[in-house]
Amino acid sequence: MRPGSYGWDFPLPRTHTGILQGNGTLGAMVWGEKNVLKITLGRSDLWDHRGGMPWTAKMSFANIRNCLEQNDEKRLRELFERAAHGKGEPSSPSIIPVGRVELEFGKDVALLSGCLLLDDGAITVKAAAGGKPVSFDIHFDMQHPALVIRLPRALRSVAVRPMPAWDSLRERLASISFKAPERLNEPKISGWIQAMPEDPCVCVGYRRHKDTVCIVVPRGETAPIARRTAVKLLDATCRGGCRRMQVSNASWWKSYWATVPDVAIPNDRLSFLYWYGMYKFASFTNPAGVPATLQGPWIEDYQMPPWCSDYHFNINVQMCYQPAYHGNRLENLKPLFDMIFSWMPTLRHNAKVFLGIDDGAMLPHAVDDRCVCMGGFWTGSVDHGCTAWVACMMHRYYRYTM
């Protein structure tokens, strides 16, 4: 039988110790200690698309074979290493961190524990205020990039502190042509807008409204558009409040859990791995969200994501989506397959330049969401297991669904 909740004890001193929430596009890691709650936010679609490399005629099987036969490792590496990039341009595409929002309570407050409710994905945080027990809820919208924190009267004097990723990564981001975020501190919206060099902006906006703190993280082609989108979403989120979100989320999760196999495991740790794992799978691969990258929506705020949080097709994507089959969640695979099929012209081009064939498809091991090859690792780039493994995933989907 599925458990109703799982608990964590504070202090939770790092992002990776935090409680996870997500809707496939936006994610939150809830952590903190003493009287400060930290909510690290990430978007799995926040790509800086600059960099990477296309497949060219020089990256052919014949050239690779010749280099190997001549024992010319230097030339072999040069075939798959991107030409020198311009100043201020990254060598490869990457997901960009968003940042976090901190809630600092009074000095007489101590965070004690957090409880994740599997029925609606909400987190209840228990604390002590002046030695008296208090609690508050965090509701994460499964359909929009928004969350709501409902505070009791004893905690409403909380200070909300915006912490853009720029604060931790100023040197790295500035080196690849990012500018400092635009800070927002207005009656309708506080937070920041982070412009991207060539991609749409991201806005983190929050507002205090009665007994709630509402946070939204939309995107927009320009900073004014991102701000207007955030204000509009804040209006709707504040108007609906916790109750609307809680009812909507409960319906979403009820539908999800109704399809997941009910597995009884007579071991608490193994049971946790299964049920929390299937919860994370939903939060990671929501069919209405973005296909799951290496880290999906859970991006640290203090560092660039390892391996750019790209799509690794030489085992990682397959491991991310493995629960879809025996977990009876085949629809969660559709965004991934749709994205791969949209790459077909590029995959056919890759096969053409690599082997000179017109009816093939060749998928490199590491790409962004536009199938731009990360480059620099020739053995991975020509790993034919990647293409075959995706074909196997699609064939299994067919066998399970007919």
For the structure shown, list the relevant keywords.
globular; 33% helix; 402 residues; single chain; ten-stranded antiparallel beta sheet; alpha+beta; 19 strands; five-stranded antiparallel beta sheet
Describe the structure in your own words.
It is globular, with a radius of gyration of 23 Å. The protein is α+β, with helices and mostly antiparallel strands and 402 residues long. The longest helix has 35 residues.
Quick rundown:
The protein is α+β, with helices and mostly antiparallel strands and 402 residues long.
Structural class category:
alpha+beta
General shape: globular
Rg, Å, rounded: 23 Å
Total of DSSP H or I helical runs spanning 4+ residues: 11
The portion of residues assigned to helices is: 25-40%
SSE string, helices as H and strands as E: EEEEEHHEEEEEEEHEEEEEHHEHHHHEHH
Through-space gap between termini: 29 Å
* Largest sheet properties: 10 strands, antiparallel
How much strand content do the residues show? 15-25%
Strand runs, count: 19
Identify low-pLDDT runs: none
What is the mean pLDDT? 95
Q: In oligomeric terms, what are we looking at?
A: single chain
Question: What layout of secondary structure does this protein have?
Answer:
Elements: E1 5-9, E2 19-22, E3 26-33, E4 36-43, E5 47-48, H1 61-69, H2 73-79, E6 94-95, E7 99-104, E8 109-117, E9 123-129, E10 132-140, E11 146-150, E12 159-164, H3 166-175, E13 182-185, E14 190-194, E15 201-209, E16 212-216, E17 219-220, H4 223-257, H5 268-285, E18 311-312, H6 316-321, H7 323-326, H8 334-342, H9 344-355, E19 366-367, H10 378-381, H11 384-401
Antiparallel strand pairs: 1-8, 2-3, 3-4, 4-7, 5-6, 7-12, 8-9, 9-10, 10-11, 11-16, 13-14, 14-15, 15-16, 15-17, 18-19
Helix pairs in contact: 1-2
